[in-house]
Design goal:
mainly alpha
Length: about 45
Amino acid sequence: MVERLQEQERKMEKANMTKQIVVIRSIIQGYLGIQVTELLNIHRETV
């Protein structure tokens, strides 16, 4: 599943959609929401 999400990230042209996929993939891989927000420099409510 993670591999499919990474493949989708590469295919995406819209940065916003790519960021959403990265958030989902990161959560699946075990990152906490706060860690994802720090890594991607986004507001915690976004996650």
